[in-house]
Specification:
The complex is a heterodimer.
Chain A: H1 8-34, E1 37-41, H2 44-54, E2 58-62, H3 77-84, E3 88-91, H4 99-107, E4 119-121, H5 155-170, H6 175-200, E5 207-210, H7 216-221, E6 225-229, H8 240-253, E7 257-260, H9 266-276, E8 279-282, H10 296-315
Parallel strand pairs in A: 1-2, 1-3, 3-4, 5-6, 5-7, 7-8
Helix pairs in contact in A: 2-5, 3-4, 5-6, 6-10
Chain B: H1 2-32, H2 37-54, H3 62-85, H4 91-112, H5 116-124, H6 133-152, H7 154-159, H8 165-186, H9 188-205, H10 209-233, H11 238-260, H12 265-293, H13 300-308, H14 313-316, H15 319-349, H16 358-392, H17 394-408, H18 412-422
Helix pairs in contact in B: 1-6, 1-9, 1-10, 2-3, 2-4, 2-5, 2-8, 3-4, 3-8, 6-8, 8-9, 9-10, 9-11, 10-11, 12-17, 15-16
The chains are: A alpha/beta, B mainly alpha.
Chain lengths: 317, 423
């Protein structure tokens, strides 16, 4: 058997091939290091906060388009595709986006399974309101708590904390970057929060009526009294006795405003408003629900301004 | 009481207006056998409004109404043409197709403009409770105009049911005009009842149109009043309550019909009584079988009887079970009150008393949760004690129910008596 021998030219060719192979093998790794982390959030609010923390290292999309009611969302085929290609999914939790569970089962992306690093429940460590346990009382249909916690700007600190922790775990080299961005955001939020508190300070303790119980966190933060709701159970129109009771409450407490979301029926709210002389204030429960609520801070900003305008209209008519 | 009258007066007037025109249109609809045509026309109107919204017109503007009405006319044209043409397919099938396609198309359009969802909902789910004077000022003249036009054109409209497509078009177009506005006012369910039920009662009891109308109006007005009053008294959603009152009115009219027709009153009454007895006997028999075969499953008949007469529990529970049951009920009540007190405290702290920080809030919430879970635990004990006692007494209880069923079943007594005599 002839021993294997290489000439000089052969050696050069081989070296060249080896170099190419090495480059080819390294390329995907290098590409991955530069590729953005693909995050899928269930709502535009979470998407906005994820963008705040992630910045240019992530690409974020929201499953529910702005302006749709996330509790009544019907998933589309495109959502499956997005979840299959995602590195992480961010959800509101607290039984709010329950449809995500079935989507995740169908998407079969192991990285997003409950407990995996790519599964981010934004509600972790939030102090929930309206907790009732499995036995659901009147008020909100969610026994495990009122899920609209992102409407309290103080909770943005906790949610971005959860996001920071998860992103740092998924992308350790970017940890410093995420932390820096979050601190910048919290500084801005703090300044804004002082501004918001000031704007609503004159109306502390004032009562208001809401179409549905979405505003518990917002009301608690700014010390407003949510005195009643038009629609107690979702989808069931109010009874005449209930409306008469609300009208009475409004007279007794001299309630100045009724709040509703853009997609909630205008008829009932206007009916009550016309009987009591109260103003109807349209608030946004989520980023993109009104054109002014472009991002998270814009959302709270819009709501605070709308509330202050509603209260002041009553004060100096 | 004055609150109730202030709140319900306008809805009642609106209901009278709606019954007034819909009872008449309903008789026409029954004649043409196009029962669900109002749903199809309303859905087309909603589709028109959605298109207007997509094109950037304001929600309640004139352009939106124009689009709504345009789409309704389109559907009316389609229905008028296919009336004579559909020899092989019943027109009801086409009406169904118009309904589902219009509904699906609206969903597809709304998917592109999320805020439109509320818009579409508003067109199809009006609530009669919140009707204002402005609404009435709009619909009353409209309905009056349609009614006068139909009266003037009665010879052509009534004589040519289905034969001339032009008169059919006039009928469907005017019908669409009415239904589009009434559905936005009162919702799909209520408008359908206003349309079909008074008309059906009228047709049941009279031959001439004027009498049919009169009967329909009286029944419709009475059922509306009953529905509104019940909705206030029992704190129920108004539209759904009125629909059920109308259903009840039709059922009563159906039961009374054989008597009103005259002749053989006693025989009719006997027949109805025997039907009622058969129903009761069968229900008792099913309950007995359920109790004996699956004593721990739900027993709706027994539960209802116990709810009405709590003393019935004493029949099958022994003293210790009864004591356990009462204890658990008392504890469940106590836990519920405790949870409610904490809820109240937490709610007040949001705006009135000293604010709770997140840690205190979480602590309080965990107490509320525990109280609620403990209440559920007590309720579980109540259910368990009861089903154990029922399981023990199932053979005797079941046998008693069987005997009751046999006694209630018509003809059982006479058969036994004749058998005895024969021996």
């Amino acid at each position: 058997m002839q021993p294997l021998s290489f000439s000089g030219a052969d050696m050069r060719t081989l070296a060249l091939i080896a170099w190419f192979v090495a480059v080819l093998m390294a390329a995907p790794g290098a590409a991955l290091a530069q590729a953005k982390l693909r995050l899928v959030a269930t709502t535009p609010d979470l998407a906005s906060l994820a963008e705040v923390v992630g910045g240019e290292r992530v690409s974020v999309s929201s499953i529910v388009p702005p302006g749709l009611d996330p509790e009544e969302y019907q998933p589309r085929p495109r959502d499956l595709e997005r979840l299959r290609g995602a590195d992480a999914v961010i959800r509101i939790g607290v039984d709010y986006d329950l449809w995500l569970d079935r989507l995740l089962v169908q998407a079969q992306n192991a990285a997003l399974a409950r407990g995996a690093p790519g599964y981010i429940d934004a509600s972790v460590a939030i102090a929930l309101l309206d907790v009732r346990g499995a036995a659901v009382g009147p008020g909100h249909p969610h026994g495990s708590g009122n899920p609209h916690y992102w409407l309290d700007p103080a909770n943005a600190e906790i949610v971005t904390g959860n996001l920071l922790e998860a992103l740092a775990r998924l992308d350790p080299p970017g940890a410093k970057h995420y932390e820096r961005r979050r601190i910048v955001f919290l500084d801005r939020l703090e300044a804004k929060r002082r501004e918001w508190q000031q704007a609503l300070a004159p109306y502390q303790g004032q009562a208001l009526i809401a179409y549905h119980n979405n505003w518990a966190y917002l009301a608690r933060r700014f010390r407003l009294n949510l005195a009643g709701f038009i629609e107690i159970k979702p989808g069931v129109p109010p009874s005449p006795a209930h409306l008469a009771g609300l009208a009475r409450t409004m007279r007794e407490k001299d309630i100045a405003i009724i709040v509703r979301q853009p997609h909630e029926p205008a008829k009932n709210t206007e009916f009550l408003a016309s009987r009591s002389g109260a103003a109807v204030v349209v608030l946004a429960a989520s980023v993109g629900a009104v054109p002014d609520a472009r991002d998270y801070i814009g959302l709270i900003d819009y709501n605070v301004k709308a509330l202050a305008a509603g209260f002041s209209r009553r004060r100096n008519p | 009481m004055s609150d109730a009258i202030a709140l319900l007066a306008l809805p009642f007037v609106a209901a009278l207006c709606l019954v007034g025109i819909h009872a008449y249109l309903g008789i026409q609809v029954l004649r043409r056998n196009v029962i669900f045509v109002d749903l199809a026309l309303a859905q087309m109107a909603a589709l028109g409004a959605t298109v207007a919204f997509m094109l950037g017109h304001p929600a309640l503007g004139a352009a939106t109404y124009a689009y709504s009405f345009g789409f309704t006319l389109l559907a009316a044209l389609l229905l008028a043409f296919t009336r004579a043409w559909s020899g092989r397919i019943p027109q009801e099938a086409l009406i169904g197709v118009i309904y589902v396609v219009a509904a699906a198309a609206a969903i597809l359009l709304i998917d592109r403009a999320p805020q439109g969802a509320e818009h579409l909902k508003q067109i199809l789910t009006g609530t009669i409770l919140t009707v204002g004077w402005g609404d009435l000022a709009l619909i009353a003249p409209l309905y009056l105009t349609v009614a006068v036009a139909h009266w003037l054109l009665r010879n052509s409209l009534l004589a040519t049911t289905g034969s001339d497509w032009r008169w059919e078009f006039v009928f469907y177009a005017s019908f669409g005009l009415v239904v589009t506005s009434s559905v936005a006012l009162a919702g799909v369910l209520l408008v359908f009842s206003f349309l079909i039920i008074p008309a059906a009662i009228g047709v049941l009891y009279a031959e001439r149109l004027s009498r049919q109308l009169l009967i329909g109006w009286i029944c419709g007005a009475a059922a509306s009043a009953v529905g509104l009053a019940a909705s206030y008294a029992w704190d129920l959603p108004t539209g759904a309550t009125i629909v059920c009152a109308f259903g009840l009115a039709l059922a009563l009219a159906g039961i009374a019909h054989p008597f009103a027709r005259g002749g053989g009153h006693a025989r009719t009454a006997r027949h109805m009584l025997s039907v009622a007895r058969w129903c009761a006997a069968l229900a008792l028999f099913a309950s007995a079988a359920g109790l004996m075969l699956a004593p721990r499953a739900d027993q709706p008949l027994l539960d209802a009887a116990e709810l009405a007469l709590p003393a019935l529990r004493g029949l099958y529970m022994n003293a210790s079970e009864d004591g356990l049951y009462r204890d658990a009920a008392a504890y469940a009540d106590r836990y519920q009150r405790a949870a409610e007190q904490l809820n109240e405290r937490e709610a007040r702290s949001r705006f009135d008393s000293k604010p709770l920080d997140d840690y205190e809030l979480a602590r309080l919430s965990s107490f509320i949760k525990s109280y609620n879970e403990m209440r559920r635990g007590e309720e579980f004990v109540m259910r368990e004690v009861r089903s154990r006692a029922r399981a023990r007494a199932r053979w005797i209880g079941g046998a008693l129910e069987m005997v009751l069923a046999l006694l209630l079943a018509p003809g059982f007594f006479t058969r036994v008596r004749s058998r005895l005599r024969w021996r």
